[in-house]
Prior knowledge:
The chain has 341 residues and is α/β, with parallel strands linked by helices. 35% of the residues lie in helices and 17% in strands. The chain is built from ten helices and nine strands. The protein has helices at 9-37, 53-70, 75-92, 113-120, 132-143, 166-169, 180-183, 202-206, 230-240, 290-299, and strands spanning 103-107, 124-129, 151-153, 173-175, 195-199, 215-221, 241-251, 302-310, 330-337. The strands form two sheets. Strands 5-2-1-6-7-9-8 form a seven-stranded mixed beta sheet, sandwiched between helices. 33% of the residues are buried.
Amino acid sequence: xxxxxxxxxxxxxxxxxxxxxxxADIASEIVATTVSSFGLDFSSTDWHNTAKPSDxxxxxxxxxxxxxxxxxxxxxxxxxxxGPVLEALDGRFxxxxxxxxxxxxxxxxxxxxxxxxxxxxxYTAEGNEISYHQLMASNWVLNYIQPHQQFDxxxxxxxxxxxxxxxxxxxxxxxxxxxxxxxxSAEVSTGAERMxxxxxxxxxxxxxxxxMGIFDAVATVFFIDxxxxxxxxxxxxxxxxxxxxxxxxxxxxxxxxxxxxxxxxDENAKPSEKQEKPGIEAPGSFELTDEEMLMLAVKMGFxxxxxxxxxxxxxxxxxxxxxxxxxxxxxHWLAEKKAES
Length: 341
């Protein structure tokens, strides 16, 4: 019955397969440019079929992320998440002519859209990302897509629940909506030279003496709640900011490690192998309220100059036609680094 009109279930599943294939074309482009960038042999099978289930989940979520960051349809989500950060930067550094001397760090840069927008506004911006899935994707979209080249992305192809109409599930969007190399205006023609990305553990890379006091601003968007130990995040932000530098935060507190049990110790491991892992993989996690976060920031050397809970929040890669919609009320604060007393 379901195979016949008006349901046409098998035909619809074929269309879902076609949408998945379209998304796979994007993934193949990303892999091909990555292989080329690192001088790997694309024909080699040594690294084939080595992905774990977690890798597949991260790859799927990364492909979906293009909807939020690099499609015209993701503009509302970007406006709600990135708009207040850009406004705060422009309010702090109103002199457009001198913005190229202002260094901004973006931890958890993901697919690089906020990094790109900050750089486009005239600042010198450095992104940081630990996920190689996101690093591969951001490298592709920022550096390798040819001018006027676009790809069909089906962000909701695998969503079978809360669907009103099949065309909502199969909807295609074009990515990217803008091409970085075509977006630099005459005033910021050297934009690409002011944009960089580091592939590393945020805590380990920016918590050392080499990176002490080198940034004028740190922008954390949907990032703080990825910390198992948020004290170490704040320590690192404080370390790499200049005195009177500004920390701009926006996002919820969906603590990523709240429901994760600590890993079981390996009883067979040698004593030398039982050393605690450094950086973000260090053991121990806890969750704080928004109020406690602000008190902690003050305790650790910041002066909070603005704080609000924003009610203009959007979803995160939210299908606008879904029967289920989740939105975040984001905490937005500006905090200055105080000099050590």
